[in-house]
Structure formats: structure tokens, C-alpha cells
Amino acid sequence: MPIKAVLFDYMGTCLDWHTGITNIFPSTIPQPDRSDFALEWRQLYFDTNAARQGRGDPPEDIDITHRMTLDEMLTRPRWQAHAELFTEEVKTKCIAQWHHQTAWDDTRPALLKLRQRGYEVFVHANGTTRLQLDITRSAGLSDCFDMLFSSELIGTIKPARENYDKCLGLIKRKPEECVMVAAHGYDVRGAKNVGMKTVYIYRWTDDINEDHAKMKGEFDAYLEGGMQGLDEVVAELG
Fold first, then answer.
1. Which domain range does residue 128 map to?
2. What 3-state class would DSSP assign to 182?
3. How much is the pTM?
4. How far apart are CA 173 and CA 121, in angstroms?
5. 46-79, pLDDT tens digit by residue?
6. How many CB atoms lie within 10 A of CB 127?
7. Do 48 and 161 belong together in one domain?
8. What is the pLDDT of residues 143-183, one digit of tens each?
9. Final residue of a domain: which of 79, 97, 115?
10. Last residue of a domain, which of 97, 132, 164?
11. pLDDT tier at 96 (50, 70, 90 boundaries)?
12. Distance CA 19, CA 12 (A)
């Protein structure tokens, strides 16, 4: 069946969240530590979302989750020495920075090529609609998507099956007509489970605890070099 729609995870997959977040941290913290802190904070966010889903809790505003996990990070032994640098003002800036991100260099060209081929292109990501609107504008991607679907809007968190089912129902497409593109194993696994085609995009900032050697044969495609050639891959899947 021909592919009609391509759905994208957003942060990490399309957007370089790491640069903006590490740059907003106090400059007195060494750059390697800032990078490690950001990566660990991001993973804690994923773990917290997974725990919420395991309990059957509804989606939480991502700003609230980011603030709670930031506070938790600063209680961990490795980071306690930096805790006093994170004043309330600094914490507020850190949370706000998630709303201002830049796209990876290969993102915009890949999205435009897909649109030129006639595919519908959607954001399908956890988070809030406000977050997606803000980062779409800051990343210069406002003309690249047909619609932004957030877990807040859908009412459930990926990788819950009902999240994908609800999104597909809204765009009136069958699973086999759609491709899920993400830099997160849990996301493409969830899409695969509902019958969607799957493309994994390797980004060094995400899935830091995954065994990537094992993942390479798990999905319809695994792109190590980012989104270059993504339109060709999607065309072949159809």
C-alpha cells in the first residue's frame, strides 16, 4: 500500500535540544559536565514519563515534568556541588529554554523533500501544544508540517497504543499508509506494534542507554547519518 503520511517525533529527532540546554546552564560549570547533566536530565524525563504511563496517569504538562526532574537531578550526588548555582531564576530560564530550539541541519531539507513528493507530514510527539508551537517557530519549521499532534492534544503518552490509534484516526489514515520517524526506540516500537512502517534516526543526544547494534535490524530502516536520503527510504517503503 502506498505511503501517504510521515509522522515525526520532534525533540531529538528533528531538533537539537542539547546545544540550547547546555548553553543556558551556569557558565562556571565545565562544558563536559554541562553536557553530561543535560543528557542525564533528558533520560530522567523519559524515565519519569514511562513511570507515569506504567501507573496509568494522564499526560503531565512538560514544563512541570522538566521542573520536577531538574530538582531531582540537583539532589543526585554527582550534581549536588552545582545545586547552589541553580537559583530560581536560573531554573526558570532552563525550563523556558526547552521552548526555544534549533533544528538539526538535515531536518528542514528532509521535511521539504517529503512534502515535494506529496506526502502529508506531521509532528507526533509527547509534550504540549504550546511547546510544539514555540519550537516550530524558533526552529524555522512552520512551513514544514501539516499538523502538530501532542500527547496533551491526544490525551495519552507514546508509546501507548491508543496514542498512535488516536492520531491515525484523526488523520484518517491506515497504519500501513504511514511511516513513523523517530530517534527513540520506544517510539518506533510503539508505531511498529500498531502496523506502521518505521524509520529510526540515530542522534547522539538520545537513546543513550539503547544497544544500537541490536536495533539496526529491528525496524524497516535505521539511518545512522541523520535524515539524509529519508525521502528515498520512505518512497521505497511504499
1. 5-15+101-237
2. strand
3. 0.95
4. 12
5. 999 999 888 988 889 999 999 999 999 999 999 9
6. 25
7. no
8. 999 999 999 999 999 999 999 999 999 999 999 999 999 99
9. 97
10. 97
11. very high
12. 11
